[in-house]
Amino acid sequence: MSRPKQASIHIRCDYDLANEFKQIVEQNGYTKSLVLRELMQHYINNSKNQNMLSERDLMSNVIKKSSAIKAAPLKDMTTDELLKLAIRMAEKHI
Predict the structure, then answer these.
(1) What is the DSSP string of 4-34?
(2) In whole angstroms, what is the distance from residue 94 CA to residue 61 CA?
(3) What is the mean pLDDT of residues 28-48?
């Protein structure tokens, strides 16, 4: 059973876009709300995956055989960037 809906989002768009969206959604047997929720979830999932990939790329650069190579990517980051990276990584492991 799904949770009750507790939030509402209102958007503005061109009338023609809204009308065409409504027609196509109805032709496919869905509701506008369902399609938009699915698109939102898809966008969130893709965004998280891209963040994970960029963190993996950074960490793979850090985990090299040479200690000079290990330190280089993190050494060039500001304290704020390091903190944000640490928080993002921690959130993924909680």
Answers:
(1) PP---------HHHHHHHHHHHHHTT--HHH
(2) 24
(3) 89
